[in-house]
């Protein structure tokens, strides 16, 4: 009963903090929407110009082979000066330069060269642009002479058009969940410290541990509710990407993660005396957790040391499991290794975090 | 009456408070540093050591030849496991044991001898960018192999394609990522620090001392702004040391302009954090608001990871409302392109305008009495 009253107090306190509520709603709706529709590392709509000195049937034919929505043809350039200009002003990712007498030389079998000039100050696009453009030009020219003896037929599983929306929607949702789980319980505890309420608590008949657990559980519940809302509304309706698995599985996995992350939050709370410390420690923990999860850099591409350390990031197991449920439609009961890792980590962190917290009061 | 002395007493108080609070001091210095190190160093967009599965129904000389061509480089792919059935292969792809798979059908070699051999490349599409890169690697290897095979038959392609990278000749993406990360870090860290500067006094109640003291609004806000600015300038110096000595990004443009635009941008992001501090009455709200409002927009709308020229009209319009967009452009222009000053001038001016607007809003909304 006491526990329930405490739980109720925390939830009400959260709901009355209008600023926090506004940002929570924003984070679980608009923020996810923006990230899902905005961040696309694959080549989309890559603007390019052509510097076509040949201006022949073949050269125009070649330029027509750059397909939308990967490429976006912006027009022709005449001088080298204007090539420099569009690249300096970031108006294009690249320029295709076709030399004089391209068609004639091609027909005679004389050597000629097509240049792909790429804006190297871009990150993902510059590599993919030059790779695709080179491929397209080779395929076009090869097609004029012979049928390629070997052909590869690529098929992308789970996400046929390699749409970034699907991945980004879930990835941003998981990031937002982590941010709120790290911050909310710690903030709730440290606020009491700052106000001097903690002294009252230590003399109250309530054991300290009950008080701490109530805070984690209340904040975990709130985040879980927001997650459900974001899943059913933002992700499935607004961003409108398919969800292949079972929603309940997803939420159960989130519940496990709630324990892990709020355990970490209690560590933050036990170290901090004021909100400045909480805020900075939250970021300090969030960054390695995000990075080591393999969300941005594939774990197999990391340096060896970091690959070993990635075992420590709880987000790694959560992302693994959550994406498997959402994108691949794997049922929860088949994700035993992720569940096991999360349970072990969650149990240990939650117990230790709360223990430290109580010790520090 | 404006008194410089009052401004400095605020700065002095804040700095002293920070120096006495060891954990805060350490973390405030560590946050930008760790962000820069983790993302500047760790954000590798090149895809390496992709674990592949192989299902070779043909099991012929030629299928093994193609496979060896794909993994001969050793850097991009390695064979994690050979499979004997498609069901097993599907399972391995589903559970992430392999990220891609090659499937050579029966008669692959025979078909090749007849004219064209086809094989399948199956890729886990969970991470779309990785899937695209894997596809492009395999395509490139196959194209090369085709050219080699034709050459053996005496057919030589008369055209060569030459990719050339401007501004960053060796296409060292680490440089671009490191410089971009600087912009993102400077959008987040100063704002987060200053977001608590005023609201903490509201929550603890010490703001009443300010309400009843003789200090003016302008002096108070300027003092807080200067505090944020000073702390972040120190961090900026550390970040520059990292960029120059650890990441060793070559600077093509003017060092003076680099410093100037960075200091200007710190002021903008400090003023932004301060504004949230003026608005909200809870530190938790001010903090989480700052994080959410700075992180995603400054990654999304600035050309950090995706090119500005690929943005749609709406996104481009939004981008112009975000100061990081201008700073990112300035940084890339100065670092990689050594652009002439006339290209930089408008962006510098815009950042200045942002600063004045944000600070004016601070002044407008901060009330020296309880609301």
Protein model, in words:
Helices cover 66% and strands 9% of the residues of chain A. Chain A is of the alpha/beta class. Chain A has a 4-stranded mixed sheet. The radius of gyration of chain A is 27 Å and the shape is elongated. Chain B has 2 domains: 4-43 and 172-365, no CATH class; 50-152, abc type-2 transporter like domain (abc type-2 transporter like fold, 3-Layer(aba) Sandwich). Chain B has 15 helices and 5 strands. Chain B has a 4-stranded mixed sheet with strand order 2-1-3-4, sandwiched between helices. In chain B, helix 1 packs across helix 10 (217-246). The radius of gyration of chain B is 28 Å and the shape is elongated. The interface between A and B is large, with 125 and 121 residues. Strand 4 (112-119) of chain A pairs parallel with strand 5 (159-166) of chain B.
| C-alpha termini separation of chain A | 23 Å
Give me the oligomer status: heterodimer
Number of continuous helical runs of chain A: 14
In which range does the helix fraction of chain B lie? 55-70%
| SSE series of chain B | HHEHEHEHEHEHHHHHHHHH
Major sheet details of chain B: 4 strands, mixed
N-to-C SSE series of chain A?
Answer: HHEHEHEHEHEHHHHHHHH
Shape of chain B: elongated
* Main sheet makeup of chain A: 4 strands, mixed
Number of domains of chain A: 2
Total number of beta strands of chain A: 5
> How far apart are the termini of chain B?
24 Å
Query: Total number of helical segments of chain B?
Result: 15
Topology:
The complex is a heterodimer of chains A (361) and B (371).
Chain A: H1 2-16, H2 18-38, E1 46-52, H3 57-63, E2 71-76, H4 80-88, E3 94-98, H5 102-108, E4 112-119, H6 124-145, E5 150-157, H7 164-195, H8 197-203, H9 208-238, H10 247-271, H11 275-292, H12 304-309, H13 314-328, H14 336-360
Parallel strand pairs in A: 1-2, 1-3
Antiparallel strand pairs in A: 3-4
Chain B: H1 4-20, H2 22-42, E1 50-56, H3 61-71, E2 77-82, H4 86-94, E3 100-104, H5 108-114, E4 117-124, H6 128-152, E5 159-166, H7 173-195, H8 199-204, H9 207-212, H10 217-246, H11 255-279, H12 283-300, H13 313-319, H14 323-337, H15 341-365
Helix pairs in contact in B: 1-10, 2-7, 2-10, 7-10, 7-11, 7-12, 7-14, 10-11, 11-12, 11-14, 11-15, 14-15
